[in-house]
Amino acid sequence: MEQVKTNTTTATQDTSEGIAQVGMGVTLAAAGVIGLWGVSCFVGALAQNGVLAMAQGWLTAVGG
Protein backbone atom coordinates (compact mmCIF):
# COMPACT_ATOMS: atom_id res chain seq x y z
CA MET A 1 0.00 0.00 0.00
CA GLU A 2 1.15 3.46 -0.78
CA GLN A 3 0.34 6.42 1.45
CA VAL A 4 -0.36 9.71 -0.25
CA LYS A 5 -0.13 12.96 1.69
CA THR A 6 -2.32 15.67 0.27
CA ASN A 7 -2.11 19.41 0.79
CA THR A 8 -5.63 19.47 2.23
CA THR A 9 -4.65 17.21 5.13
CA THR A 10 -1.57 19.28 5.87
CA ALA A 11 -3.54 22.52 5.78
CA THR A 12 -6.18 21.10 8.13
CA GLN A 13 -3.52 19.98 10.58
CA ASP A 14 -1.77 23.37 10.44
CA THR A 15 -5.07 25.17 11.02
CA SER A 16 -5.95 22.94 13.96
CA GLU A 17 -2.53 23.51 15.50
CA GLY A 18 -2.88 27.28 15.07
CA ILE A 19 -6.31 27.30 16.69
CA ALA A 20 -4.97 25.27 19.62
CA GLN A 21 -2.08 27.71 20.08
CA VAL A 22 -4.44 30.70 20.07
CA GLY A 23 -6.65 28.98 22.64
CA MET A 24 -3.66 28.29 24.86
CA GLY A 25 -2.50 31.89 24.52
CA VAL A 26 -5.92 33.24 25.51
CA THR A 27 -6.04 30.89 28.50
CA LEU A 28 -2.58 31.91 29.69
CA ALA A 29 -3.35 35.61 29.22
CA ALA A 30 -6.53 35.24 31.29
CA ALA A 31 -4.59 33.39 34.00
CA GLY A 32 -2.03 36.20 34.07
CA VAL A 33 -4.70 38.89 34.42
CA ILE A 34 -6.43 36.93 37.20
CA GLY A 35 -3.10 36.47 39.00
CA LEU A 36 -2.27 40.17 38.79
CA TRP A 37 -5.74 41.04 40.09
CA GLY A 38 -5.27 38.69 43.05
CA VAL A 39 -1.88 40.16 43.91
CA SER A 40 -3.20 43.71 43.71
CA CYS A 41 -6.14 42.80 46.00
CA PHE A 42 -3.75 41.20 48.49
CA VAL A 43 -1.43 44.21 48.50
CA GLY A 44 -4.38 46.57 48.91
CA ALA A 45 -5.72 44.59 51.86
CA LEU A 46 -2.29 44.54 53.49
CA ALA A 47 -1.93 48.29 53.05
CA GLN A 48 -5.38 48.94 54.49
CA ASN A 49 -5.45 46.46 57.39
CA GLY A 50 -1.86 45.49 58.18
CA VAL A 51 -0.22 42.12 58.55
CA LEU A 52 -1.68 41.20 61.96
CA ALA A 53 -5.27 41.97 60.96
CA MET A 54 -4.81 39.96 57.78
CA ALA A 55 -3.45 36.99 59.72
CA GLN A 56 -6.30 37.23 62.26
CA GLY A 57 -8.89 37.44 59.48
CA TRP A 58 -7.36 34.43 57.69
CA LEU A 59 -7.33 32.36 60.88
CA THR A 60 -10.94 33.33 61.58
CA ALA A 61 -11.98 32.39 58.04
CA VAL A 62 -10.20 29.04 58.15
CA GLY A 63 -10.84 28.11 61.77
CA GLY A 64 -14.29 29.55 62.17
Describe the fold and architecture:
With 64 residues, this protein is mainly alpha-helical. It has a domain at 25-64. The protein has 2 helices and no strands. Helix 1 packs across helix 2 (51-63). It is rod-shaped, with a radius of gyration of 24 Å. The N and C termini lie far apart (70 Å).
Could you outline the blueprint of secondary structure elements for this entry?
Layout: H1 7-49, H2 51-63
Helix pairs in contact: 1-2
- Shape, please? rod-shaped
Give me the count of strands: 0
Unreliable spans: none
Give me the secondary-structure category: mainly alpha
The helix fraction, in percent, is over 70%
Question: With helices defined by DSSP (H or I, 4 residues minimum), what is the helix count?
Answer: 2
Q: What is the C-alpha radius of gyration, as a whole number of Å?
A: 24 Å
Question: Percent of residues in beta strands?
Answer: under 5%
Largest sheet: none
Average pLDDT for all residues = 88
Oligomeric state of shown chains: single chain
Give the termini separation.
70 Å
Order of helices and strands: HH
Task: Write a concise synopsis of the structure shown.
This protein has 64 residues and is an all-alpha fold. It is 88% helix and 0% strand.
Main attributes of the structure:
64 residues, mainly alpha, rod-shaped
